[in-house]
Amino acid sequence: MKHFKNPKFSLLILVFGLLVSACDNQLTEVDPINEAELKKQSTISKFNLTEISDYSNLRKGDFTGKYLVLSRNQNLNSNLMRSIENAGGEIVKQYPEIGVLLVTPRTDTFLEEAGKINGVESITPDLVWTYTQEPGLVSEDVTVSAENARRITAGGEAFNYRDAIFDGWQWAPKAINATDAWDAGYTGEGIRVAVLDGGFHSTHIDLAPNLDVASSASFVPGFAFNQDTGTFWHGTHVAGIVAASGFGVVGIAPKATLVGVKVLHNGSGAFSWILDGIIYAATPQNLGGGGAQVMNMSLGATIDYRNNWQDREFRDAFRELQKIYDRVTRFAFNNGVTVIASSGNGETNYDEERELFKFPAQNQHVLSISSTGPTGWVLGNTNFSDPAYYTDFGKSLVDFAAPGGTVGLAVVEGNFNPCTLIGTTRTTTTTCAIFDQVFSTVRGTSNGNYNWAQGTSMASPAAAGVVALMMQANGGNLTPAQVKTRLMQSSTDLGKPGQDEIYGHGFVNAAKAVGINN
Length: 518
Hints:
Blueprint: E1 2-3, H1 9-12, E2 16-18, H2 35-42, E3 63-71, H3 78-86, E4 89-95, E5 100-105, H4 110-114, E6 120-130, E7 142-143, H5 172-175, H6 178-183, E8 192-197, E9 217-218, H7 234-243, E10 257-262, E11 268-270, H8 271-282, E12 294-297, E13 301-304, H9 312-334, E14 338-342, E15 356-359, E16 366-372, E17 400-403, H10 408-411, E18 418-422, E19 427-431, E20 438-442, E21 449-453, H11 456-473, H12 480-490, H13 510-513
Parallel strand pairs: 1-6, 8-10, 8-12, 9-10, 12-14, 14-16, 16-17
Antiparallel strand pairs: 2-13, 3-5, 3-6, 4-5, 6-11, 7-21, 13-15, 18-19, 20-21
Protein name: S8 family serine peptidase
Keywords: Hydrolase, Protease, Serine protease, Signal
Family: Belongs to the peptidase S8 family.
């Protein structure tokens, strides 16, 4: 049985790389370990961990004050729970689906005593780390005035994507032939897509028609699912890519049902919150869950154990975290939920950098998505499937590719010239490279704000939208294994023939995914 009590562990447990979701794609450095301070802490608390006091200001390495107890088998029984309580632990939450308990220690001897229990495999601190980072907004918000908005209802009128106010501003749907799928009547209607992320602006005019507010939930203490910080709101941008209703912009599956599951606050979250979110989303509605058929996680953490593998506690912690994540993604898979995650924005080849591991993109039964984008779309370029300069890649990481946008025209090619985008009803002028990003919903200052962002965080929901279209075309009955097979059959084989390190099994194609040959 493993438990982790080394003073370095609270900061070492993961020397996290940041899976950045937008413009800034550098890996975040972990603050140096202050051994003197840690020694001081060890005289105060046996756990050498400081409990979170302010959930609105989360930091890497924050401790929720709880431990994740992993059972040796995947069952929780009364004897095990009684033993945990006798060892001085208060069981806060049970995860019988994956054989995990969330426990608050009530005695200084809890770790030592719990370590003697035969049915316990490991005890791991429930820590906070950064999963996403909101991009700096690269342009002013584009606001739809409320006085210009027609009344929106969940039932809505017949869908016509050409009526969108910003028609002509979105290159991504056309790049994957989603418009052909819409023309054929496929909109994702009847398919439930859970988005595990930060806050969701529930009254946004493009999200409200499709958002199942009653099923949406938050697992961040003290915050509702429709709360976050700033004006971007990562979860709102991601949700719009999946299923914006077509008032201002059009999501890839514009009539799919969105279930907003808040597991992050300002891009950070505790390990237990992610577990809560996955289990909730993958649990059928009649059992009190979100009832998702598709799950999108535009989030992740990179474990870099290059300089830490000699530390036994780090090595054990990494393995135990991997087991817990595998159990929960396997639970979703077994419940018929297709799980999709962003591959990351570190410009890294995971086939070469084998000391890296990406949670949850590399966990069992997760489809990991890399990012593509054009350079100079407004200038007439249509290279939509070109790899984005920032995307992580590698056969060991990537399953498929999708449009996530790129400002490579400026960052890589140095072109900061202005361009004018002429849409069907709206025109705007800004730096040409801005338009090569993905345009979607944001929190802003009203119920009708939109902006651009780039990242694999934007590519993942595009793929999730394609899966929703595919599932609608097949009566909503596809298993995750069938979804992967059909994506492999329908995606465009780019790069090296067959599976390759950039595109995985291919660049998603919405029209072919629903059975249209184009």
